Amino acid sequence: MQPSANSPVTSSGTEPSAKSQRARLWRHIVLFGLAGGVVITLLKWTEYRYLVVEHSIEIYGGLTAATFAAFGIWLGLRLTRKQIVLKEVRVSVPAEPFALNSKKLEELEITPRELEILELIAKGLSNREIAEKLFVSENTVKTHSSRVFDKLGAKRRTQAAQLGKEFGLIP
């Protein structure tokens, strides 16, 4: 039986049984019950002291708030614990080297400079980095990239890179 992504797994690699989960639940209930009993006993014992008699409501409220805060923190940490899920991903290596689709390039009327800008966008460079690399102004890069977006029908840089790869314009 394979463990699911959300179920806890013990150190031996098996899922804990329902019986052990129930036993753990009862252990937590008894532990919190005993802790509550100890807190109440301590409060009753200190209730007759001179300071506690005057401020008993504040002390009870503070201890109750601290108890619920501690329980909330503990519960929050248990519920938001990150679970690691490993997946094997196969990466396909192209059998043949990249060949530019010159027919699509002519059809879209993309200039060599615009193709160069598209390649650099696909590599993840910003407009400023592209401008520095090509020794042109940032506005020139913006102009070329907006023309490429229009010719490809793209609205974003990532979409332009994706379409460029689909059309065979960039590797």
Distance linking N and C termini: 43 Å
Query: So what's the oligomer here?
Result: single chain
Return the average pLDDT rounded to an integer: 81
CATH architecture classification name of the largest domain: Orthogonal Bundle
CATH topology assignment of the largest domain: Arc Repressor Mutant, subunit A
| Highest-level CATH class of the largest domain | Mainly Alpha
Count every beta strand, where a strand is a DSSP E run of 2 or more residues.
Answer: 0
CATH 4th-level superfamily of the largest domain: Winged helix-like DNA-binding domain superfamily/Winged helix DNA-binding domain
Domain tally:
2
Element-level helix/strand string: HHHHHHHH
Q: Largest sheet at a glance?
A: none
Q: Which parts are unreliable, with pLDDT below 50 for 5 consecutive residues or more?
A: none
Helix residue percentage: 55-70%
Q: Report the structural category.
A: mainly alpha
Q: How would the global form be characterised? A: elongated
Helix segment tally: 8
Percentage of β-strand residues: under 5%
Radius of gyration: 33 Å
